[in-house]
Design a protein that fits this description.
It is built from 7 helices and 7 strands, in the order βαβαααβαβββααβ. The chain is α+β, with helices and mostly antiparallel strands and 267 residues long. It starts with 7 loop residues before the first strand and ends with a strand.
Length: 267
C-alpha cells in the first residue's frame, strides 16, 4: 500500500547534524536536504508553535473586538471574572459571534419577507378562497403608466377566464388574472407578483419566527455581556501572546543568523 508523503522540516544544533541524519535514515525518510543557507525560511521550517501562536493572537484580537463592541479597549488592570479559561472563552465568543451574525442575517430576510407579504395582503384579495379552489389558475400582475393600457389589451385578447383590475397604488395598477393553460408572456409590460402559498399563513409564520429570533438575540446579548466580563483576562492574555510572539520571532532569527543550527527539509 502506498501512503501519501508529508512535507517535514527540522531544526537543531549543528553539532548533532550527523547523528540526526543517521536517525532519519533508520526511520525511513524518503528524501532529505540541507536548507541551512536559506535564511528566508519556509513557514514549516520554524517551530509550529510560533504559527499556532499567530493564529491564537488573531482569534484573540477578533474576540476582544467582538466583546469590546468593535474596538480593542484599553487595558486597565481590572480583575475580571474568576474561572478564566482562554481557549474556552475564545471558542464560546467565536461561536456566539457567528450565531449573532446568522440571526441578524435571517432577521433582515424576514423583515423583507414580512414587508412584501403585508403589501400583498393590502391588495384586498381574498387569498383564502383563491387557494381553496385547487384547479383554478391565477396570477397577480402590476403595471404602470401607458404599459397598463397595453397590458389590458393583451389580457383582453387572450384565452382567459377572467381578469380585473383590483387596485391602484400610485402609478401602479394591479390586476388578477384567471386563465387556462399557461399565462402568456407579459414581462414586457408588467411584473408578476410572486405568491407561493397563502400570504396570510406565511406572514403569521414569518412574524412568529422573527419573534423567536428576537428572543434568541436577547439571550445571545446576555451571553455576550457575561463573556465580556472576562475582557481584562483576555486583554492580559492577548498582551502576553503578543510579547511571546516577538520573543519567538527574535529567537528564531537569532538562531538562523548564528550558523550554529541546521535546517533540514524532506519528505
Amino acid at each position: 500500500m502506498i501512503s501519501p508523503a508529508n512535507k517535514i522540516f527540522f531544526i537543531g544544533p549543528r553539532s548533532q547534524l550527523n547523528q540526526f541524519l543517521s536517525f532519519l535514515q533508520h526511520r525511513g525518510v524518503v528524501e532529505i536536504s540541507d536548507v541551512s543557507e536559506d535564511l528566508k525560511l519556509e513557514k514549516g521550517a520554524v517551530e509550529s508553535s510560533y504559527f499556532a501562536l499567530l493564529k491564537k493572537i488573531s482569534q484573540l484580537k477578533e474576540v476582544v473586538e467582538f466583546l469590546g463592541e468593535g474596538k480593542i479597549p484599553q487595558l486597565k488592570g481590572a480583575a475580571g471574572r474568576e474561572g478564566f479559561n482562554a481557549d474556552e472563552i475564545i471558542s464560546k465568543s467565536m461561536a456566539l459571534k457567528t450565531r449573532i451574525s446568522e440571526i441578524l442575517s435571517e432577521e433582515k430576510n424576514l423583515e423583507s419577507e414580512i414587508k412584501k407579504l403585508e403589501f400583498i395582503l393590502s391588495l384586498g384579495v381574498d387569498f383564502e378562497k383563491l387557494f381553496s379552489v385547487k384547479k383554478l389558475k391565477w396570477k397577480i400582475v402590476f403595471s404602470s403608466g401607458k404599459n397598463s393600457l397595453r397590458l389590458e389589451n393583451i389580457l383582453a385578447q387572450g384565452d382567459f377566464i377572467h381578469f380585473e383590475k383590483i387596485t391602484q397604488k400610485g402609478r401602479r395598477s394591479f390586476y388578477i388574472v384567471f386563465f387556462r393553460g399557461e399565462l402568456p408572456s407579459v414581462e414586457k409590460y408588467a411584473t408578476v407578483v410572486d405568491i407561493s402559498g397563502n400570504p396570510a399563513s406565511r406572514l403569521k409564520a414569518a412574524k412568529k419566527r422573527f419573534e423567536e429570533l428576537e428572543e434568541e438575540k436577547k439571550l445571545c446579548s446576555e451571553d455576550k455581556v457575561y463573556l465580556a466580563g472576562f475582557l481584562p483576562q483576555i486583554l492580559f492574555y492577548y498582551d502576553y501572546c503578543e510579547n511571546l510572539k516577538l520573543r519567538e520571532k527574535f529567537k528564531q532569527e537569532s538562531i538562523a543568523a548564528t550558523k550554529k543550527a541546521f535546517f533540514l527539509s524532506g519528505w
